[in-house]
Amino acid sequence: MKTLRAQSDNSVQDTGRVDTLPQDDEIDLGQMVLIVWRGKAWIVIMAFLATLAGMFYIANTFPTYQADALVQLEDRSGRLGLPAAMQDMVETSGSAVTEAEVIRSRMVLGQVVAEQNLDRRITPAVAPLIGTMLRRYNVPIPELGILQRYARQGESITVDFLQVPPHWLGANMPVTITDDGYTITTPDGAILEGRAGDVLSLPDQGFAVTLADITSPSGREYNIRQITLRQAIDSLRRELAVSEAGRQSNILQIRLSGQDRGDIERVLEAITAVYVRQNVARSAAEADTGLEFIRAQLPIAETNLREAQDALNLFREQTSGRALAQDTLDNLDSTAFESQALLGQISRAESDLRTINQRVEDNMSRYPEGHLIFRQLAQEKEAIEIRLTELLARVQDLPETQREVINLTRELELAQQIYFDLQSRAQEMQVLSASAVGSVRVLDAASAQSAAVAPRRNFILALAAILGALSGLGVVLIRYWLRRGIQDASDLDALDLPVFATINYTPHADFKRTRKGTLPILALEAPDDLTNEAFRSLRTSLYFGMLDANSKSIVITSAAPAAGKSFVAANLAIIAAQAGQRVALIDADLRRGQLRRHFDVPRDRPGLAQYLSGIASLEQTMFETQIGGVYFMSAGPHPPNPSELLMRRELAVLIEGLDKIMDLIIIDSPPTLAVTDPVILGKSAGSTILVARYDETSAAEIDAVKKNFASANVRISGSILNCFDPRKARNASEYSYGYRYSYARRAD
Predict the structure, then answer these.
(1) In sequence order, what are the residues at sequence separation of 6 or more whose Cβ sits closer than 8 angstroms to the Cβ of residue 462?
(2) Which among 260, 314, 585, 741 is placed 20 to 30 Å from 572, CA to CA?
(3) Residue 287 included in any domain
(4) Are residues 539 and 490 in the same domain?
(5) Domain for residue 232, yes or no?
(6) CB burial of residue 527 (10 Å; 0-12, 13-18, 19+)
(7) Residues 692, 486 contacting (CB under 8 angstroms)
(8) What residues form DSSP beta bridges with 568?
(9) How many angstroms separate the CA atoms of 170 and 237, rounded?
């Protein structure tokens, strides 16, 4: 311990530099853990508050439910029992991605919006902040004033019919419930009155509305508006999700979210019904279109067939009625068999050619151009065309009459083939139209889950607690980094302030903050407290250090309030008196002095202020307390000019007089950074001691105090580290042994 020596000339050694604490760039994980542990209260409080906020959010949010349905996409052609030739004519189911987009299309959702009246919006007036909670729970709120307009649990209105003109779409129409029914205000300012079930209308505007059911008391307010079809579809689409249940399973899962289980079940049921209907209609549309075209072509084909028959019959009649030469008849008889054979070959070749063309057309959608099958069909087609050309060339060698018969017969057969094909096609289309049952099947009807899917209570509470704890951790670290208070005696030594004593933390030091009236003194209330050992050590140091001093007066000050200077002054005075010293304790805080509360002195008793102003004498202001050897002078009633009083000659006279009769003079002064009084006191007293509070007084504050004293040519003799807690210290392990040993030794 450095010896305290009073400086009669109060000289100051100015080093010309700013003293700061040493900074360590490395992160001490152990120290960080200690900081967090010391700030655990902040972390717990922030986590608790965040959890409460999460609980409030859950209570003030409507639960969201989800309904789902399963739809299967199946191959319709395979289950209709159609002939193989007709299978390709049946539309099969599309891909899952395609069908999902069909469900989400405006074609489907638009019909649902129209059927379920989803373009109507009915919203009640809700109270600020807790409006949702009022509608979810039976919160007892009085029906007074503005509170009467807000909706409560179980209250609603039902709009049975609503028609608005196009320019009123999206406009708000306030509704107020009355004792006789309700009133509604239209966008043009008209106010209509009616009862439940009445039709209120403005024919000129094209407006009509009917409220079918009202379960709200008088005074409640609602808002009705009709949105556009596109807005309603987009809103429904945002709550709708369509996905394939499994990879290539051809099963679609349709999910719809909402706040009312009954509503989402009803709407999802309507979506699946509309989707199935449009699928059936889509399957039958192609067959109906083809059947309509074929029925239009049948009369034309029948006419062409009749004309071909008439032309052949007419030619035969004309030929049989002519008088032919004998050689012509002989030639006809000889070529009749050849003509029939040639005609049959031509018919077969043309039939084969039509078959090849049909096969090419069927394979166009199955295989890419240039595929092997197209090359094979092209070769077969070329061979048939060559054979047909040869057969037609042979026809030219026949007699003219026979050629004409063959040509007319070919035309008749072609007309017959077209007519019969159209009839067959019409029958097939009728079968397809009659069997249009669609390519989708509803496996699971719409059903809403009993449990809400949002908000996720456990997740929100856990997340809120974690975020709150992290926020508390941030507060602890920010407070630590911003404050950076004195951590141990070495920090004060680094600031060129000798440490005369380190006083451990005790709850008695905070009595001033927590109690009113008389304040206890630790040295009297708890004489065995470990903290008193620090005061005894300080007493010893001061006793030997002041043997040769010119003045026995000590000014005890601090940088800021609540550092514990009054606590140190009072207890030091008692400890010194217990050693047989005569101690004068002076409260020089003429602004907010509180030392009188330790000795139960009334505020109006004359004190230092009255002595300096000449109103009262030393005998009237200083008295011996119940603790033998301790003489106390309070600050007295607060004067209007404390600094001017301290600058008077009477202060120096007081100290000189007390030096002659006292062993120790302790002067409790105000905080240095608040007022200039400590500097004035320091010039008159023998020594000045600065009290720094552990973890609160910063190095910057101490540096500012030193500058204030240096500007008045006053030197701070030393310092006291107050409220030091070894368990919370920066290097707690270094203090643990000494702390336990000292305590054990004291227990002996």
Answers:
(1) none
(2) 741
(3) no
(4) yes
(5) no
(6) exposed
(7) yes
(8) none
(9) 19
Name the amino acid, one letter, at 186.
Answer: T
Helix (H) or strand (E) holding 583: strand 583-587
Residue where one domain finishes, among candidates 192, 226, 260: 226
**Tokens encoding 201:** 């209308």
Residue 439, amino acid: S
Handedness of CA 396, 397, 398, 399 (dihedral sign): positive
Residue type, 444: D
Cα-flanking dihedrals φ and ψ of residue 227, to 5°?
-95, 170
- Determine the 3-state secondary structure of 76 from DSSP: coil
Query: Token pair for residue 353?
Result: 């050619």
Give the CATH number, domain containing residue 339: 1.10.287
Residues 6+ apart with CB under 8 A from 92: 75, 76, 77, 439
Helix (H, G, I), strand (E, B) or coil at 222: strand
Give CA–CA dist 355/361, Å, rounded: 10
Per residue in 678-727, pLDDT tens? 999 999 898 999 999 988 888 889 999 999 999 999 989 899 999 888 77
Domain shared by 646 and 517, yes or no: yes
Q: Give how many domains the chain has, as a whole number.
A: 4
Q: Identify the CA nearest to 271 among candidates 241, 228, 226.
A: 241
HSE, CB side, 13 Å, CA atoms: give it for residue 671.
15
* Helices and strands in the chain: count of H runs, count of E runs: 24, 20
Contacts of 25-32 with CB under 8 Å at 24 or more apart are 31/730, 31/731
What type of residue is 219?
Answer: G
**CA distances to 539, 549, 580, 739 from 747, in Å:** 22, 36, 25, 12
In this structure, are 424 and 529 located in the same domain? Answer: no
Q: Please report which helix (H) or strand (E) contains residue 163, including its range.
A: strand 157-163
**What residues contact 438, with CB distance under 8 A and at least 6 apart?**
76, 276, 279, 280, 282, 283
Measured on CA atoms in the order 281, 287, 290, 296, is the torsion positive or negative? negative
Segments forming the whole domain that contains residue 220: 124-226
Specify the 3-state DSSP secondary structure of 485. Answer: strand
Q: Are 184 and 192 in contact (CB under 8 A)?
A: yes
Q: Is 637 in contact with 592 (CB distance < 8 Å)?
A: no
**Cβ pair 698, 484 in contact under 8 A:** yes
> Which segments within 422-526 are labelled E, that is strand?
440-448, 499-504
pTM higher than 0.85 for the full model? no
Distances (CA, A) of 33 to 48, 427, 652, 723: 21, 88, 51, 21
Residue carrying structure tokens 């007081």: 654
Q: Which two tokens stand for residue 636?
A: 């007295």
Residues 300 and 354 in one domain: yes
Angle at alpha carbon of residue 387, lines to 385 and 389, rounded to 5°? 65
- Give the residues across from 209 on adjacent strands: 162, 200
DSSP symbols for 667-706 = EE---TTT-SHHHHHHHHSSEEEEEEETTTSBHHHHHHHH
User: Cα Rg for the chain, rounded, in angstroms?
Assistant: 54
Q: What is the mean pLDDT of each run of 10 residues along the chain (748 residues)?
A: 36 38 56 82 95 94 95 64 43 72 94 94 91 87 84 92 94 94 94 93 93 92 95 96 89 94 95 90 68 80 82 74 45 54 74 80 76 83 82 70 72 78 75 66 92 92 96 89 79 89 77 65 86 89 76 93 91 93 94 89 92 93 92 93 92 93 94 92 91 89 93 91 78 44 34
Q: Which of 435, 469, 504 is the last residue of a domain?
A: 435
407 and 467 in a single domain? The answer is no
Which strands, in side-by-side order, build the sheet including 240-244? Answer: 240-244, 251-258, 65-73, 440-448
Measured between alpha carbons, how far is 186 from 201 in angstroms, rounded to an integer? 10
CATH number of the CATH domain containing 598: 3.40.50.300
Residues 475 and 585 in one domain: no
Cross-strand partners of 177 = 182
